[in-house]
Structure formats: C-alpha cells, structure tokens
C-alpha cells in the first residue's frame, strides 16, 4: 500500500480554455492535492492571463507543442515539483473531477496508473453529448487493445488519468508522440513494464467541438493505434523500439 503522506499533485494541460477554465477550477477538489500547475500550450485566447488571475501556478509554451508535447512538459514539471501521485485532468470540463478520490484510493492500494471508464453504461456517453459515429470506433479500438495487450479495462482511449512517479520512472514517455497518440503509447508502455493499471468510473460532459473528431483525425488515430500495437508485439519478440525499453 502506498504511503498516504506522499505528494499528490495535479497537472492541467490547456489550449484555448478561457471559456471553461474558471468554472473548472472552481469545481476542482483542491483539498485533494498539495500542488497544482497549468501548462498553456501557446493559446490564442486569454487562457494564460486567466490562469494567473485565478492564482494557478502557470507555465506557457513559447510555441504550440501539441497535446502530447504539452503533456510531456507537464509531466516533467510534475517530477520537478516532486509529485508522487499526479492527477491529469483537462480544464475543458469534459471529464468530471468527482472521480479523483476513487482514483487516488486505487493508487494507494497499489496501482501505478489509473484511467477513467466512461462506459459503465454505454448510453451515458450518448446522453452526455458524444456523437454515435465517434462512439463506435472507440469501442472497436478498445476491443482490439484489450485482446492484443491482455488488458481487463473498458475504456482505453480516454483522457482521465492518474499517474505515479514510479510509473514515469519505469517508462520512456519522453519518446512518445506529440499528438493524441501519446496517451495510448503511455498505456502500452505501462503494459510492457508490467505495471498495475486500474480504472474508475468517470462522468463526462461533451459540448461544442469536443463532441467529435473529424473523419480524417479519427482515421489517423486509429491507424496510429494499430501501428503502436504492432510495435508492442514486435518488441515482445525482441525487436528494438524507441517507445519500449
């Protein structure tokens, strides 16, 4: 069981989150964490100034690094700040912070990585605003990943995560992609390192552009997932890969 006195922190990676940041921060369970940091990925709106106004310790990238690139920097900062348990939650309000206590409890009971599960009931995602045409490929990719990676998880391609310092030290996350594939690569790296991955139910709220990716984006992501799984299988057979130690 993990020491309850370890440093619990939160990282918020943000891009053009001015419209949602204040409400997100107001509802974030600040009593659960010792440290919070926000990393603004060169937003073109007032995200950076608002974060400073709200009193959030904030860093701003000189140029846009992309989702994965920004998360790499945020995780490196989390390590620098001495966080032992790192909550990764986006300030766009898509994922509900109410899942945090249960996730921390999973970490304290031995998990190295905790991810959210949006599919306690599949209809919940439709009711929360997800487009059906986005839901179907997600469920298909989840099925492929579960069987090829031997994972007993229901929702692999999502954005609520809690990491441990031990996990970050055990994988090569700085070699991951700078796009959305970063998160899937990280899960596969955890599998490769024989780390304990758990999940907790998480509520979602989809509005505006968050409701669905374009067909091109979905196709490229799906092809990327297949490529990463292939690299994982080849690595298990002895082939060298930048992603897997």
Task: Give an overview in words.
By secondary structure, the chain is α/β, with parallel strands linked by helices. The protein is 43% helix and 14% strand. The protein contains nine helices and seven strands; from the N terminus they run βαβαβαβαβααβααβα. It has helices at 18-27, 47-54, 66-80, 100-108, 122-127, 132-149, 165-170, 181-192, 215-236, and strands spanning 8-14, 35-40, 58-60, 85-88, 113-117, 161-164, 197-201. It has a seven-stranded mixed sheet, with helices on both faces. Strand 1 (8-14), helix 1 (18-27) and strand 2 form a beta-alpha-beta unit. The longest helix is centred in the last third of the chain and has 22 residues, at 215-236. It is globular.
């Amino acid at each position: 069981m993990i020491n309850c006195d370890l440093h619990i922190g939160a990282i918020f990676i943000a891009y053009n989150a001015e419209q949602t940041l204040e409400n997100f921060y107001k509802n974030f369970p600040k009593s659960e964490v010792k440290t919070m940091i926000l990393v603004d990925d060169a937003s073109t709106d007032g995200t950076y100034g608002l974060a400073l106004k709200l009193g959030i310790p904030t860093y701003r990238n000189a140029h846009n690094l992309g989702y994965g690139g920004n998360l790499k920097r945020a995780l490196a900062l989390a390590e620098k700040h001495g966080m032992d348990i790192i909550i990764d939650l986006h300030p766009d309000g898509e994922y509900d912070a109410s899942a945090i206590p249960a996730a921390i409890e999973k970490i304290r009971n031995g998990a190295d990585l905790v991810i959210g599960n949006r599919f306690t009931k599949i209809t919940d995602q439709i009711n929360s605003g997800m487009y059906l045409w986005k839901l179907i490929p997600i469920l298909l990719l989840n099925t492929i990943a579960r069987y090829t990676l031997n994972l007993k998880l229901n929702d692999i391609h999502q954005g609520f995560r809690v990491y441990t310092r031990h996990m970050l030290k055990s994988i090569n996350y700085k070699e991951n992609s700078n796009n959305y594939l970063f998160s899937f690569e990280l899960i596969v790296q955890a599998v490769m390192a024989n780390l304990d991955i758990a999940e907790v139910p998480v509520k979602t709220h989809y509005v505006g552009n968050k409701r669905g990716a374009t067909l091109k984006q979905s196709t490229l992501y799906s092809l990327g997932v297949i490529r990463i799984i292939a690299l994982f299988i080849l690595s298990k057979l002895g082939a060298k890969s930048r992603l897997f130690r």
